[in-house]
Amino acid sequence: MRHNPMVNLQPPRADDAVPHSRVLTPKEAGQLLEAALASPARLKGELLAEWIAVTYLTFARKSEALRLTWDDIDFEARTVRIINDPEGRQHTKTVAERTVPMVPMLGALLQALPRHVTSPYVFF
Fold first, then answer.
1. DSSP secondary structure string, 75-97?
2. What is d(CA 76, CA 71) in angstroms, rounded to the nearest whole number?
3. Looking at the predicted structure, is the pLDDT value of residue 93 above 60?
4. pLDDT, tens digit, for every residue of 99-122?
5. Among 15, 85, 104, 111, which is most exposed with the fewest C-beta within 10 angstroms?
């Protein structure tokens, strides 16, 4: 190779970077919840709006919120334990477990959710 193709390449500028992730604004979260509450799935008893709210209020990933069990919720201590991957199959850059405070809205939402007799999961 006679010419280095990388010689004229410019490194990306910090202001050009796309953020890895961002948090919804309260307005956006409200719009998302309104849409979920109006969803036809709601009529079938699906808990889409509740799942979205729990995910938003705990900063959980989608998969973490879906793996949430009633044992992860401590109403007395007002905390929610978020487990990245209980079986250790996924390897991510974050810690495997974290505990988040349960804000009053989250506590009320979780207490109002139905519990399935044969499933330990919050969202069964």
1. TTTTEEEEES-TTS----SS-SE
2. 12
3. no
4. 999 999 999 999 999 998 899 999
5. 15
3-state secondary structure of 62: helix
What is this structure's pTM? Answer: 0.69
Report residue 24: phi and psi, to 5°: -60, 145
Q: How far apart are CA 84 and CA 65, in angstroms?
A: 9
Q: What DSSP designation does 121 have?
A: B
Give residue 91's pLDDT band: very low, low, confident or very high (50, 70, 90).
very low
Q: Say how far apart CA 49 and CA 64 lie, in whole Å.
A: 16
**Residue 112 amino acid letter:** A
How many C-beta atoms surround the C-beta of residue 106 within 10 A?
19
More confidently predicted of 21 and 35: 35
Enter the tokens of residue 98.
Answer: 């974290």
Residue 69 DSSP SS3: strand
CA distance 12 to 93: 23
Query: What is the per-residue pLDDT for 110?
Result: 94
3 state SS of 122: coil
